[in-house]
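Standup, Tuesday
Yesterday: got the pipeline producing structure tokens again.
Today: sanity-check two examples.
Blockers: none.

Example 1:
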Amino acid sequence: MLIAGFPAGAWGTNCYLVAPAAGEECVIIDPGHQAAPGVEEAVRKHRLKPVAVVLTHGHIDHVASVVPVCGAHDVPAWIHPDDRYMMSDPEKGIGRTIGMPLMGELSVGEPADVKELADGAELDLAGLQLTVAHAPGHTKGSVTFGLPEAADIPPVLFSGDLLFAGSVGRTDLPGGDMADLLDSLARVCLPLDDPTVVLSGHGPRTTIGQERATNPYLRQVAADRQGRGAAGAPRRGM
């Protein structure tokens, strides 16, 4: 399997191109601010044919290049319906203070073909099977994409801004909610096996095992689950 990733733009948002191998069809995950040149470079380098863009959520640092990338390759964009509005009206999702410094240089809007993601959906794209998990908390429509173990790699979770190495996504933007985020960590991340590779929206790769041992948020939800199991009633959360 081929996973080509690079950070792009003012926010250093990770964009990924995923394919069964070089020279084949690929899926593009989160082409954000100033990601289009990097996407084209990776397409040329690995001789890839994009068939879809899939989005972990609607914040502009993850979707700013969706229109040019989808247009260049005549492919659809997939996004959860709760975050779809952010593609054409990003200020509602990220806030005027954060968004305005770059709004003048951004071309926002929806691509010609938008498809909506559903929790538990299995997307069969580019010879890959991506499992969609609705994971609200950072935004109402945040999702993760899971790939099963392949011959040459362990399972992979594209976590968006749900789980980072040592941290989690912020919850102070519109649609953010810490209780929802902790619930998403418990449902989506905690059950995964330790070798699962986590490729997040920002920062370096990690694994579920490493985060289970060191990430204070994942440790908190694990402790809460243990407490509920032992006492038969929920403990107080964060």
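Example 2:
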Amino acid sequence: MGTVFSFDVRGGEPEAVRAALREAVAGLHRVDEVFSTYRADSEVSRLARGELTVAQCDPQVAEVLALGAEAERMSDGWFSLRYQGRLDPTGVVKGWAAERAARLVAAAGASGVSVNGGGDVQVLGSPGADRPWRVGVSDPLRPGGLAAVVSAAGVPELAVATSGTAERGDHIVDPRTGRAAVTDLVSVTVVAPRLVWADCWATAAFAMGAREGLAWLESLPGVEALLITAGDEVRCTDGLGARLG
């Protein structure tokens, strides 16, 4: 997936947790083999060329495509499963894979799990008694600085995903034009229970721009967001303050 994944796991029976962690890491490698658009022999690449049908692919492919179709529907097409006219589900895969890995380890008995996939984070449980997970949000205009710190206090699961230009430049596409999104934003950070959706919503809102993106994010239940414009203006959803700390 072209990025680094890291795990922070607390509690549980050590051998069971280690076994689950090995399974989770193997699963991430398998996801890369199946979904990589950079591998000519991946199932997604072969599917895009018409060499396979969805039914002939790993069942994970149908699951991811269904999630992407739902994201397209809920964003009115601002999120897309296609890039330059070609099937490309990578906008779904990273968040889905990181969330899936976190849940697998938690199911093995860990009391707290944090999985960071290239800066997008899924946390479950807690790192200790009376201690919530806290996730820093990088400041896109001040390298090395933080724009905010999100707290998972009071909730059993939380995800934080950011889309923007700070790390990878203009890589987010406007589905209407097929070209790089022309927007007044430099980053959108979405806070939600599940990383698969937080990741999709951050991408879609970035392509929309600050005004439309913020209004749309406000309409989504259980979702909060922080948007930063190129002019260093910070905009956020009404309930974000309750998640900061």
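Quick observation on example 2: The chain has a mean pLDDT of 94. The two ends are 31 Å apart (CA to CA).
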